[in-house]
Amino acid sequence: MHSALQPVGPRAELIADLMLLFFAVSAVVYVIVIAFLVWAIMRARERAVQLGPAATAQADRKSKVAVGVGAALTVLTLAGLAASDFIVGAILRQPPADPLRVLVTGHQFWWEIEYDDPVPGNRLRTANELHIPVGRPVQLIFTSRDVIHSFWIPSAMGKMDLIPGRTTNEIIQVSQPGTFTGQCAEFCGFQHSKMRLTLHARPAEEFDAWRQRQLAPAREPQTQEARRGQQVFMQSSCILCHSVQGTAAAATVAPDLTHIASRRTIAAGSLPNTPSALASWVLDPQRIKPGSRMPASRLPPDDLSALVAYLTSLQ
Amino acid sequence: MTSAEYERERAEVEKTWAEKPGWLGQLMVVNHRTVALRYLVTTFVFFLLAGLMAAAMRLQLARADNDLIGPDLYNQLFSMHGSVMMFLFAVPVLEAMGIYLVPLMVGARNIAFPRLNAFSYWVFLFGGLMIFIAFALDIGPEAGWFSYVPLAGPEFSPGKRQDFWAQLITFTELSALIVSVEIIVTAFKLRTPGMTLKRIPLFVWAQVATAFMVLFAMPAVMLGSSFLISDRLVGTHFFNPAEGGDALLWQHLFWFFGHPEVYIIFVPALGIVSEIVAAFTRRAVFGYLPVVLSLLATAILSFGLWVHHMFTTGLPPAGMSFFTAASLLIAIPTGVQIFCWIATFATGGRLRFHTPLLFVVGFFFIFIIGGLTGVMVASATLDSQFHDSYFVVAHLHYVLIGGALFPLVGGIYYWFPKMTGRMLSERAGRWQFWLFFIGFNVTFFPMHILGIEGMTRRIYTYSASSGWEGLNQLATGGALMIAASVVVLIANIISSLRKARTAGDNPWDAPGLEWATSSPPPPSNFVRPLVVTSRTPLWVTPHPETVIGLPTGIRSVLVTRVHDAEPHHISVFPTPSIWPFLSAIAVTILFIGSIFTPWALVWGAVPVAIGLIGWFWPTKEETATHCKYEVKPPREAPPPSEPAELRL
Amino acid sequence: MSTSGVRDVTGLPTYTFGHHSLMWWGTMGIIVIEGTVFVIAIGAYLYLRSLAQAWPIGAPPPDLTYGTLNTIILLLSAIPNQWTKKVAERENLKLVRIGLIVCLAFAVAFLVVRAFEFGSLNVHWDTNAYGSIVYALMVLHTTHLVTDVLDTIVLTVLMFTGPLEGKRFVDVSENSVYWWFVVGSWPFIYATVYWVPRLP
Ligand code: HEA
Ligand code: HEA
Ligand code: CUA
Ligand SMILES: [Cu+2]
C-alpha cells in the first residue's frame, strides 16, 4: 500500500484532502474552458459568412467582457487555491509535542537510521527499515554522507531531501499499524532505483519491545556452523565496513548488521531476507545491485554457507 | 515604373544577395533562411535520436524487474534524452522558427548580424555532435538534465561524462545568446516602414519576449556550468560543503535559468498558436494588447519562480509560500491568452479545419491539463508528494509536448509551403495528428497515477510488488503509437518534397508579410520591402506600398526607428564568409580541449582570436564597394524625424 | 504583386552613430549578458558568505593597495575613452589614432597592476569556496578586460593600415561604449572583493 491518496496518518491525510481539492477545482476549470472552446469552434464551423466590421466590433465588446470575467475568475480561483495551500502548510509546520526523534542519514544506496536518546547507550543504529510507534509524531532529522537523496513514503508523508552539509527535517505520524513502502526520490546514482525503504508502524508497546530487542548486543552464535561463520566474518573484509555490536566489528560506513536477521529485506529492499538471498548478496552484490558500494567476496562455498548461518542467527 | 525596370532591379538585387556556389559556398552561407532550415533539420534529427532513447527507456520500464537495460546505460539514456530534448531540440527548434520567420514577418531582407547567425549554427551543430559522439563512446552524461551536485561533481562522477555535459551547456548557450540578440535587433530595428510597435506580429512579440528571457537566464547556467567544470577540473570548491561551498548553490543557479528555460520553449509556441488561430479564423487575434502584455508578463514572472523546483530542500517556509504564490500568478497571463484565442474562434470567420489548426486544437486539450497539473505542483504542500515522481514527468511532457511540440508541428504544417513551395498532405496530417494525440495521452496520462502511487523518476527498474507494471506497459504502448505518428510525419515530409512546387505565395490566404513574397522567398526575401498599414497587411486592400531607392549593388537593409518604424538609415549587410565556420571550429577546439586541460583556455584562445580577427578584418574590395555607395550621416543635425525629409 | 504606390528612401545614410546603429544594439546585447553574469556572480559571492560562519574563510581579506590603484587607473581611463568616442563620431582619423593609443596605454597599465592584484588576494582558488568565488570574480573581470584590449589593438592597427570606410568609426565608438561597461562594472566587483570581507 503506497499511494499518496491512501493516507495512513493525519498529516498525509491533510495533504491528500488538499490534493483532492486541487483535482476537483482543476476538473471544473478544465471542463468549463474546454466547453467554451468547443462551443466557439462549433459556432465558427457553422458560420456562413465573415462578420462585417460593425458586427465584429459588437462581438469584440462581448468578448472583452467575457475575457475580463474569465481573468477575474482565474484570479479568484488561484487565490482560493493559494490560501488552502498556505493553511495546510501552516498546520503541517506546527511543531508537535514530544516527538520521537530519529536521525536518518542517506548513503549511496541505503538508509542509516539512528534513534536519538539522551543516554548514549540507548541510541540505536539500524538500516533501511524504519520502525515507529502508531499515533506518536516522529521527527525525522535528515542529512547525507555523500550525494542528495530524498526520503519518501507516499502513504505516510510527503518527501524531504537529505543534503550533504545541511540538515533538514520532517514530521511523520501514522495512525494505523502496518507496513508501508517508500523509495529514495532524488536521483543519487546507479542504484537510486533500489534505494527503497519500509516503514513499520506498530502499537507503542510492540515498538518499545522491538527497540529493546534491537538495543541488545548481537546474539552469540549457537551452532557450530554459525560460530565458524562468525570467524569467517571477522577474518574477511566485512569488518572494514560493517559493525556487529558486541563484537570487534565496529565500522560505520555500511549498514549495522547486529540484528540483520530481524529485517524483512536486505540491501535496501532489493532482496527478501532469506538465507539463499543473503548468500547470493554476499557473494556478488554487483550482480544484484550493480554499482552498490559493497564489493564481491570470493568466499569458498562452505565459508559462505557458514557466514550465512551466522548472519541468519543475528536475530 | 515599368515592369522592365522592375525586372532589372530584381535581377540586380538577386545577384547581390546570392550565396556563393559550391561546397565552400555551403560553408559560407549567411542567409537566415538557409541557416534556419539547417537548424530545423539538425534539431529534428536530434529529436528523433532523443525520441529513440525515450523509446528504449519505455521498453525497459514496460516490465517489472526487467533487465533489458542496466543502470549505467539507463542513467545515460534519460540524461541524454532530457538534455538533448531541452538543449538540442526544444529551445533551438523554436529559435530556428524565429530565425526563419522573424525577418520575413517584419519585412526585412536578412536577420541582423547574419554572420554571427551562421556562427551560432556551427557552434550549435558541433556541440550537438560532441555530445552524441561522447554518448557513443560511453562517456555520455549520467546525472540527468539538471545534473545536481555533488552527484555530478568530481567525487561522485569521476571520469569525463559530466564535463561533456557541462560543455554541452556552454555550446548551446553561446548559440542561444547570439540568436537572441539577433532576434531582438531584427524585431526592433529592421521592421519595415509602418510596422509600429502595435503592428508587430504576435509571433514576433513572442520571439522577442523569449529572447529577453534567454539574455537574462542563460548567464546563470553559464556561471553554474563554469563553476561545475572548475570544481571538477581545477579543484575549486563552489559546491563542496566541506570547504564552505554549498550543494544548493548549484540548484539556485540552475533553476534560475531552468525555470525561464521552460518558458523559453513555451512562449514562442504561443506565438505560433496566435498566428495559426488568426489565419484560420480569418481575423486578427482578439485582444492584441492583452496577448502581448501576457507574453511579456510571462517572461518577467518566469524569473520569480525558480525555487518551485526546490520545494523539498527544506528552505524557509516564507520562501516556499512566496514561490507558490508567484507560480500560481503565472497561470493568469497564460489563461488570458487562452481566453483571447477562444474569443477569436467565437468571433472570427468561418473556420477552415486544416492540419495546422488541428494541432492547435490538440494543444488546447493537452496543454491545459499540463498547466493545471503545473498549478498542483506549484503548491509547496502538494509538491512534497509530487516532486521527483512520475507525476512531474507527466506534467513536464504535457506542457512540453502539448504546449510546445503540438504548436510546433502545427507550425511546420503551416509554414512548410513557405519554406519549400510545397504543401504537406492533409490526409497524412490527420493520421499523424490522431496517432500523436491518442498515443500521447496513452503514454503520459497513466504517469500521473504512477506518481501518486509512489513511482519515482529516474529509476531503471521497479519490483513487481510495487503494482506499477500495468500502467507502465500502457505507457510503453502509447510511446510506440507516438513513434508511429513520427514515422507518418517523416513520410509526409519526404513524399511532399518529391512533388512539384504548387503551393503559391499564400496558400492559406494568411495575413502576414511572410506570405507576401514567393515560396520559397528569393535571396533577399523581398525585392522591395513593403510598407505596412495594419496588423493584417495582406488582408487590406489596396495592397501595401513598396519601398524604393535602396541601393541594389550592396546588401542594403533598411533600418527603422524602434517606436514608429520610420526609416532611419540603410545598413550594409555582410556577404558570405568562411570565417564564421572557421571561428566555430576554433571555439569547438577550445571548449572540448578545456574538458581535458585548463590550459586549453590559454592555447585554445589563439585560434579563436585569429578566427575573430580574420572575421572582422575588412577586405579591400569590400571596403571599396561600400565606399562607392557610402552616404555619411548628417553632421550635427538630428536624424531625420519627418517622413517628408526622406524624399530628399 | 501589384501595389498602390511607393516610398522612396534614396539618399539615406549608409551608417550611423549612437543608438540607431545596429552595432550599438549588438554591444548593448553583450553588455546585458555580461552584466547579468556579474550580478549573478556577485550574488553567488554574497550567498556563500551568508552560509559561512566567518568571512573570509581562513584567509585575511585581499590587500588594498593594488586593487585601489587599479580602480583609480580604470576610472581615469574613462577620460581618454570618452574623448576617443567623441573624435570617432567626428570621423577625425588623426585624433582617433591618438585616442586609441592613449586608451591602450591605460589598459596595459591596468593589466600589469592586475597581475600584482592576483598576487595580493591572500587566497587561492582551491583553498576553499571563498577563494574560489574571489577568483571567479577576478577572472571574469580580467577576461573582459583582455578581450577589450585585444579588440582595441585590432582597431588601432586597422586605423593605421586601413582599409577604412566611415562605418569603421562606428566600430571605434562602440568599442568605447564597451569600455565604459568594463569600467562601470569594476567598482561593484572591487567593492565585493575588497570591501565586503572587511565588513563587520
Ligand atoms: C513548456 C514548458 C512548461 C510550462 C509551460 C510549464 C508551466 C507551468 N509549470 Fe512546469 N515544468 C516544466 C515545464 C513547463 N511547465 C518542466 C520541464 C518541469 C520539470 C523539470 C524537471 O524537474 O525535470 C516542470 C516542473 C514544474 C514544477 C516543479 C515540480 C517538481 O519538480 O516538483 C512546478 C512547481 O511549481 C511547475 C509549475 C508550473 C506552473 C505553475 C506552470 C504554469 O505556467 C501553467 C499555467 C497554465 C495553466 C494553469 C492552464 C491554462 C490556464 C487557464 C485555462 C486559466 C484557468 C486556470 C485556473 C483557474 C487554474 N512546473
Ligand atoms: C521537448 C521535450 C521532450 C519530449 C518531446 C519528450 C518526449 C518523450 N519522452 Fe521525455 N523527457 C523530457 C523531455 C521530453 N521528452 C525531459 C526534460 C525529461 C527529464 C529528464 C531527466 O530526468 O533528466 C524527460 C524524461 C522522460 C521520462 C522519464 C525517465 C525517468 O525519469 O526515468 C520518460 C519515461 O517514459 C520519457 C518518455 C518520453 C517519450 C516516450 C517521449 C516521446 O514523445 C518521444 C517520441 C519520439 C519517438 C518515439 C522517436 C520516433 C523516432 C522514430 C520513429 C525513428 C525514425 C528513425 C529514423 C529515421 C532514424 N521522458
Ligand atoms: Cu538515494 Cu536516490
Ligand atoms: Cu519551473
Q: What does this 3D model show about the protein?
A:
- The complex is a heterotrimer of chains A (315), B (648) and C (200).
- Chain A has helices at 10-46, 53-93, 204-215, 224-235, 275-283, 285-288, 301-313; strands at residues 100-107, 110-115, 124-127, 129-133, 138-144, 149-153, 157-162, 168-172, 178-183, 196-202, 265-266, 271-272.
- By secondary structure, chain A is of the alpha+beta class.
- Chain A folds into three domains: 10-93; 100-215, Sandwich (Immunoglobulin-like); 224-311, Immunoglobulin-like (Sandwich), CATH 2.60.40.420.
- In chain A, the strands form four sheets. Chain A has a five-stranded mixed β-sheet with strand order 3-2-1-5-8. A three-stranded mixed β-sheet of chain A has the order 4-10-9, with helices on one face.
- The longest helix of chain A is centred in the first third of the chain and has 41 residues, at 53-93.
- The radius of gyration of chain A is 28 Å and the shape is elongated.
- Chain A starts with 9 loop residues before the first helix and ends with a helix.
- The model of chain A has no long low-confidence stretch (mean pLDDT 94).
- Chain B is mainly α.
- In chain B, helix 3 runs antiparallel to helix 16 and helix 12 packs antiparallel against helix 14 (390-420).
- Chain B is globular and about 80 Å long.
- Chain B has 20 helices and three strands.
- Chain B is 64% helix and 2% strand.
- The model of chain B is unreliable at 637-648 (pLDDT under 50).
- Chain C has five helices and one strand.
- Chain C is 72% helix and 2% strand.
- In chain C, helix 2 runs antiparallel to helix 3, helix 2 runs antiparallel to helix 5 and helix 4 (129-161) packs antiparallel against helix 5 (167-195).
- The longest helix of chain C has 33 residues, at 129-161.
- Chain C is elongated, with a radius of gyration of 21 Å.
- Chain C has helices at 22-51, 64-89, 93-119, 129-161, 167-195; one strand at 6-8.
- Chain C is mainly alpha-helical and 200 residues long.
- Chains in contact: A-B, B-C.
- The complex binds heme-A (2 copies), dinuclear copper ion and copper (II) ion (CU).
- One heme-A (HEA) is lined by residues 48, 51-52, 54-55, 57-58, 78-79, 81-82, 85-86, 89-90, 144-145, 393, 396-397, 400-401, 405, 443, 457-458, 479, 482-483, 486-487 of chain B.
